Structures are given as C-alpha cells and as structure tokens.
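User: Can you predict the 3D structure for this chain?
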Amino acid sequence: MSNNIPLNKIRNIHQEFLKGKITIRSTAKRLKISRRTLRAYLNKLGSFKNNFPDKLNDFKEFYRFVRDVKSIPDRQVNLIQLFPKIYSCIRTSDSSLKNQWKMYKSMAPDGYSYSQFTFYYSKWINKNKSSIESNTLLLSSILNANLKILKKWKLSNDKKEWEIATALIDFLKGRQVLEISAKIERSKSLIRKWIKLYKKEGLDGFKPKTRNVNKDILQNIEIKKSNLIKLIHESPKNYNVNRSSWSLKSLVEVYKEVYKSKISKSMISEYIKALGYKFQKAKKVLTSPDPNYREKLEHITNILKNLTDKQKFFSVDEYGPFSIKIQGGRSLVKIGEIKSFPQIQKSKGRLICTAALELSKNQITHFYSLNKNTDEMIKLLNLLLQQYKKEEKIFFSWDAASWHASKKLYARIDEINSIEYRKINNTPIVELAPLPASAQFLNVIESVFSGMSKAIIHNSDYGSTDECMIAIDRYFEERNNFYLKYPKRAGKKIWGKEQNLPVFDESKNFKNPRWR
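Assistant: Here is the predicted structure, written as structure tokens:
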C-alpha cells in the first residue's frame, strides 16, 4: 500500500466508505490512484472499523492508524524472528554477524543480502535495546572486578588504554559495536577481538607480551654499533672516499668494505640515533679576537645598567656605501611569476648614511656622507652635542674601525671635555665606550639599519639619490615620532620591520652581510 497519496484523497476515501456506497473503478479513476491502492485503504478502513468502531467517524484517528500500521513482508518477519538467536550466538560464542548471515543464506537462499541483513539487524537492536541489555550480564560479571582499573585507563594519557577501557565499558552499557567503533575510531573487528580477549583472559590479555630476543642478534647489533663509532671518528678520506664528512651512503659502502658485513642505510640511521649522534649543519658565528673582549663588554653593560635620566647612550655606525639602482628582495608576486632585475646596471649615484641610535628614547639622528672618515664622525659628534645640549653626559659606542679611533677624533673629544669649552658652549661630557674589535654584531644600530634596508632599499628603483634620501628621511622620522608618542627604551617595542630587537645583547648577531 502506498502511503504517499495526498491527505485530501485519503479523506475522500474515508468519507465514501462512511456513506457505504463506493465503486472501486470509478472512485480510483476520479481520485487518480490505482485500484490496488484504493483496495488497500478500504481494507484498512475495514480493520479500523472492527478494532475501533466508536472512532470510525474520526478521520484523525483513522489516519494515525493508517500511518502506524504497515504491512511487513513474510521474509522480513521470518528474519526478525531469528535475530534473538543470532544476537545470543554473537555474544556467547566466537561467531560474527557475517557468519550468522552465511548460515541464514544457507537456510533461505532467497533471503536478504548482507547489507539488508545488517540494516534490519541494527534496526532490531535499536528497537529492542532495553530488552536485550540483560545479555550484557555475561560481560558485567567479569568487568566488576576490574572496573576501577578500566576507569583509570579511561582517564589515562595512554591512547590505547583509553580505547580499550572505553570499548569495554560502553559495551557493558549496551552500546553496539558500530557505535563504539565510530566513537574511538577503531574497526569493529578489533573491538570484537578486545571483547573476546577480555572474556577469555581478563585484563591480563592486554599486557604487552615479552619477546624472547636472541642473544646472538643483540651481540651482533652491539658489534655493529661499536664498528660504526670507529668509522665516524675517522675522516672519510682515510678510506679513499672523496668527501669532507660522512653521509649514510658512504658509511654503508665503507662498512661493507672494511667489516665484510651487510648493513643498510636505515640500520645505520637507527644506530646513529641510538648512539646519540645526528647530522646537523654547522652554525656560522662571529668571533671577536679582541683580548679585552670581556672587559669592554662588561664596561658597556655597566654603563647601560646605571644610565640616568640626564645621560644618553648612542650606538653609532654608517650604512653603505650603496648604489642607487634597481634592487632585489622579497616581495609579493603571483604564483608562477618570477620577479627579476638586471645584474649589470648603471648606478644613479651612491649614498652613505651616518647615524646614531639613542638607546633610552630610541631616537635616530642621521645625515648623509660622501666618505667614511674621521671628519664625518666629528660632524656627527658636533650634531649630537647641539641636539642633546642639556644632558650631563653622552656615551659613544662604535666598532673598532680606524676612523672611529683616530688621533684627530680623540683630540676633538679632549677639547670638548675641557672645562673652558664646556663653560663657553654649555655642552655635556663625552665618554667613549668602544666595542671590542671585530664585534660589529654587538652594535645595536645595525638592527635599525636592517629594518630600514628591508623597508626602503630592498625592491627599490629610485630615480636619483635625492629620491632615496627622502624615503630614508621619512622612515627615520616616522620611527622617531612613534617612539615619542609611545616612549620605550630600545628593544622594549619593535617598530617597523627590524629583524632583531634593538637592544644590547651579546648573544645577538645584528650585522648580516646580506643587508648591505
């Protein structure tokens, strides 16, 4: 019977039945339904009349009766009658649902396929869950002794323990293997295996099985490790291998040749890890050869620790010289496209930017030079003396370039620090805090230069030196304004795109050849 005909047609059939005069052929034609469907509804009306004669006139009650009562095929009825026995066999023996279906098909060759069989079985399980829960007592009698352990496993960080405990406890609660499988993301066959293992051996069945390892094999492994260590400690060139360092392939070849024993790359890799070795790239570091490195470093650190509000510390250096031309660098490009620039270009000019970074206020003072020499350093010193005239003392920290430590510069500083000069010009005392030799990596201003280079120089194509200077001036102006608005000591707040914190730290490498 089709229950998909419109409600008004079912109501029409009900009204015609109540009148007592209904012709199958003409009514079916008028309602545009099949005569078979009409007869089915009339049969249901007859059944409804026999069971509920007092409600026959109530169409809502009849419709509810029609909707709830469905005709079930005989083979489905026969199959459902087998399900309690099938369920019991699966729970109490080593049988599976597929084995039970094969037995069913041998008895009923015209029966349902395996997919239909499992569909109706799952439907029956869900409908009769409450009535079949008593069957789980078989497992619960075993579980009660170990329930505390299983609850601990369920709270464990060990994934396998959690999976086993969840599967067994949920099975005890009457949940189906299909539900448990979806919950713990394990196969149904594995869950059934765990349940059978628990029934047979209890929790002892889940303990890891100890393997009997052959002592000769263990001894052979130790010998191979020992031989491998001997090879690693020697140079590959000692074995006529044209390499400066070992590779897995070269170790395999030499090992076979020297010890006349087979060994694979995977075995060597595993043994190397077990011995505490690994392939690692050497890190390039800058080292200062200055014999007074530690003393100079401690002197600078003490100055910064005790810096007062009326004192200023400057990190001084030059950026450049660099040519004004099309520059390369990282930029955003469409996938598949390659950005390029000509290797050989005509320079539009060259620039040197001489600058000083004041660490306490994070302010940059800069100008442009034609050369790197003592005169430019004196020019920067005079500029800072005028700019920071109200300070008591200013410290200069720079690398050990020759023009940073010339007699002419020292003579100028001695002149500035003289009582007569300071009385006339009202300038602060100047104290030098030179960096150790070849220790440009300690110069804090290099970090600011790297940020400026990435933002202003990389990917640039300035038409002239003036255009480039305008861009650099704007960069430093915006940076200074930012720190005037948000006062921070250098390194507390990163502005722009500086690659390192602009803070004095001997572990940093502020200078990178690629920036220049």
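The two ends are 87 Å apart (CA to CA). The CA atoms of residues 377 and 478 lie 25 Å apart.
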